[in-house]
Each structure stands twice: as structure tokens, then as C-alpha cells.
Amino acid sequence: KQEVTQIPAALSVPEGENLVLNCSFTDSAIYNLQWFRQDPGKGLTSLLLIQSSQREQTSGRLNASLDKSSGRSTLYIAASQPGDSATYLCAVSRNPNDYKLSFGAGTTVTVRA
Amino acid sequence: GAGVSQSPSNKVTEKGKDVELRCDPISGHTALYWYRQSLGQGLEFLIYFQGNSAPDKSGLPSDRFSAERTGGSVSTLTIQRTQQEDSAVYLCASSLSASPLGAQYFGPGTRLLVL
Prior knowledge:
The structure holds two protein chains of two kinds.
Chain A: E1 4-7, E2 10-14, E3 19-25, E4 32-38, E5 44-51, E6 56-59, E7 62-67, E8 72-77, E9 86-93, E10 102-103, E11 107-112
Parallel strand pairs in A: 2-11
Antiparallel strand pairs in A: 1-3, 3-8, 4-5, 4-9, 6-7, 7-8, 9-10, 9-11
Chain B: E1 5-7, E2 10-13, E3 19-24, E4 31-37, E5 43-50, E6 65-69, E7 75-79, E8 88-95, E9 105-106, E10 110-114
Parallel strand pairs in B: 2-10
Antiparallel strand pairs in B: 1-3, 3-7, 4-5, 4-8, 6-7, 8-9, 8-10
């Protein structure tokens, strides 16, 4: 069974600092990995999706890397802003026929103004 | 309003009562998923619908849980004889296809509290 772990569980940084969020998974035979953002009382918003054949994906201030062999992904958020405060979740899918995402418990980020 | 919508947004019920949670997926999305998010835990897959195919119910925690999708659109998740451990946020998502290549779009969730 795929186990997805996110460390740290919570993170507080001053505005302007870069954020580094970690995700690890026990079964390296993944098909893709997604990073989501969840705001209090809201649903999940997909941020980045990395196929297993890719090493990284970038969108604006966000960059996600994937090292499938070591079972790790890292989400970098550059020059953090108070609006980045949210819970960030990573999720992996196992194969093209497996739509069941395995989620980590998330990292709750607070960016202090 | 092109996103996934869910109702009610919050539900408080007494132990032993039945509840129904509704999900309206994005128009045109053929795949629909239900997840449960318990406090401090990751999302747990519950059930999956794809078109007219038989749903994948492998994630449902007990036979008190059931779901249906009428007309390939709206879905209802029913929990019978609710227990306190059923308290969680129930999230619905939809995607254009069954392939994981299609990103799943999530609704805001229904927060269920069983007293």
C-alpha cells in the first residue's frame, strides 16, 4: 500500500522567505504526482502535476521537483506572501489505470506579514 | 459557476441518523470521485464513477456508506446510521476522463459532524 508522508506538518515563515515543502512516498512505481492547495473551508486547488517521466514542473513562483527513485518530491514557493498561507497536499497515482490518488496529510503554511 | 459544487456545506446530525451529501460535478466531466478527509489525516478515497460503468466502491469503509450517480451527472453519498467516527469533511471531485492525466477538480466539501 502506498504511504505518502509530508514533513513538516506545519510551517511558519516571515513574508519574503522561500518555502520548501517535502513529500515522500514508499512505492516509487508512481504514474504522476500532484500538489494541491487547500484553504480553510474550501476545496482543493490543483497547483502542479508532474508525470513520472518528468523531473520538475514550474508555474510562476511555484516549482515542484520529483525524484521517483528516492520517492521524494519537493514544492518550492519563492518569495512567499501572506496569501500563500494554506495547507499544501501532495498526492500520487500508481498507474494509468489507477485513478485513486494517495494523499499525504498536508503541510499547513503560515506566512507572517 | 463552472466549478464542482457540494451541498450542504455543513451538516450536524445525531448518531444513528441517515445523511445525504450531494455533489454537482463540472459539466462534461465523466469521472466523479468521493473522498473523506478526517482531522489530521490525508484524504481517503471512497468511491469512483466513470460514465455508465459500474462504480468502484472499494474505498467505502462499511456497508453503511453508499453512493449513486444519476444521469451521469449529480452524485449523492448516503451514510446510514451515522457514527461519531463518520465525522469528517467529504470532498467530491470530477475530471474529464478516468486517466490520472486528467487533473481532478475538487468541490469545497461537506463538513459532517455526528454528535
